Structure formats: C-alpha cells, structure tokens
Amino acid sequence: MSWISNTVSSSIGRKIVMSVTGLFLCSFLVIHLIGNFQLFSADGGLAFNAYSHFMSTNPLIRVAEIILVAGFGFHIYESIMLTRRNQAARGGQSYVVDNIGQNSDWKSRNMGLLGSVILVFLIVHLYNFYYRFHYEPLPMDSAGNKNLYGVVMNSFQTWWYVLLYVLAQIALCYHLLHGFASGFQTLGLNHRKYTPVIKLVGYAFSIIVCAGFAAMPLYFFIFKS
Fold it and tell me: Transmembrane stretches, by residue range (predicted)?
C-alpha cells in the first residue's frame, strides 16, 4: 500500500485528489441550488421547510452528508498542502496551478486566496443555518416543520451577511472558472477537440450556479425587507 500513500502525497497525487473532490463538490452545488430554489416559493416558506426537514431526517441524505464533509475536508487539506509545497518550491511566491492556457491568469494565481474567502463564508454559513437548524430550538411552521425559512429571511435582511454571501459567490465563481476545467485536465481529460467544450461548460456552470446562489440573499434583502 506504500505506493498509494506515496502517490497521494506527491504533487500530482494531491492535484488528482483536489480534482476528484472538486468535481464531486460541483455536483453538490447543483443539488443544493435546486433545493434552495424552494425559497422563492410563494407559500411562505412551507416548501423550503419541508425540504429542510427531509434533508435532515432521510438516512441516505445523512450518509451523503458524511461523504460531503469528507470531500470538503480532503479538498481543503490538499489545497493547503499543495499551496505550501508550491510556495516552498518557488521561494514563497504566490500559489500557481497549471492552467489550460499558455500563461496563467489572475484566478489561477490566486486559487488559495479565493478558497480562503470561500472557507470563511462556509464556516459562517454552516453556523447560521446548519448548526442553528440542528442544535437550536426554532419555531415550527403551520405544517409542523422547523421554520428555517424564518432564519433565512432574517439573515438575508442583514446587510453585512448579504454582502459576505455575494462576495463569497463571486470568489466561488472565479474559483470554479479555473478549477472546473483544470480538474478535467489534471485527470487527463485534455483533448484539442473537447477541451474548449469543457472550458465553455465550466464557464456556464460557474456563472449560472453562483448567480443563482447570489440571487437568493439579494432577493430577500431587496424585496422582503
């Protein structure tokens, strides 16, 4: 098993782990976004609260949560280790990841910074919604489910949280703009014919998903205040 350990701990091995976990997390973003669209329902949050109750009680979802947390953990850890190794190899210069183009651009040189912004947001976000939903007493809605919709509405009427949320989506968009295509390249899915298509899909995915998430706090802050 030593060859597995040596491979995973190598620079290319860490990039492969980051690519696999990163692409897995992209699938989570799509599922999470679709579920959160329940916030726009005109039923006063009943659909969103029912969705939140299902996600918190279904045993298959709970198993998926463990896998998801492991995916986040591996992705963050490998990102930190790869950043430190690249900085050491370059005498402390900024983090650089192989780019599809011939020259690196701003987002590829600052993946560590973008990831740090996302991590700070993630900690605040998990406390505000996941922790409060599971471990704090929340009022019930008319259907007998915890009223997480009320927590969302109150949070999205707080200017600094809305600002943090939107900035995090901008950082996530830049992170995905580079990471999506780079992940396929690292896994060897790099072809003169298909790479431009993958890059185009990555741009569309990054912009649509992040714009969808950013629309939620802006909607509540502008129209529900």
Answer: 20-40, 60-77, 111-130, 158-177, 197-222
